[in-house]
Design a protein that fits this description.
By secondary structure, this protein is mainly beta. Helix content is 12%, strand content 43%. It is built from 2 helices and 15 strands. Strands 1-2-3-4 form a 4-stranded antiparallel sheet, with no helix packed on it. It has a 4-stranded antiparallel sheet with strand order 5-6-7-8, with no helix packed on it. The model is unreliable at 1-39, 147-155 and 178-187 (pLDDT under 50).
Amino acid sequence: MRLPGGRIGLALMIAIAALAYSGARGLTASARPATASPNAHVSAAQTHSCSRSGLRVVAQNSRGRVLRGHGYYGCLFSVGRFLDLDGGESVISHVRLRGRFVGLFEYYVGGAPHCEAGLNVAVFDLSRGDAYGLAREIFRDYDPRQPTCPRRDIPAVPTQVVLKENGAIAWIRCTWRAEGSGFGGAPLSCAEQATYEVVKHDARGNRRRGRVLASGPAIDPTSLRLRRGRISWVDGGRTQSARLR
């Protein structure tokens, strides 16, 4: 559209300034650490095979996605099949998706008289499901130190979780104090003066128990990193590391 006389020059100056600003932003962004876009390398046709009304995407990569509705579901774009990750009865957090594997933390704590409990880090393979539509579970950390009424410390709640593309997983967990006889569904949080543990599970490790690498109150609960097959964390101000196979 042709602008009234006298405004053409102003419009050109604004356009040039906008281009310069966007270019500067591009240079700044290129200097930042790269982060994967939820839709990177994924076509509309692929995502359509793993879309369903009422479900919200919580994690996605080039191979599949994890969705949340009443429960949590995983779906590979190449298959287009929704697999149940929790049965809709657990509280889920720390969802991680790498390759075809999903790692997550789930918990359920019932009230008296039994104080049933389940606090677990689990890994699922989205390429395999059973006749009931459940994703194949390849690892679940069963910690024998479960809650009892009326209170007990439970070193199970993770502060960070990292997952490798082969299904290996590592996490930092802390002590959670469960109080009372009816604490089911209560928010989980780290207790004051908590003891932290760094735990890992290699892809071919024990399917029911992670390996504790470090323990103590001086572990930084937000320091866990995964880089080139190694995990690292900070303990007492010093960086420690181990290979995640």
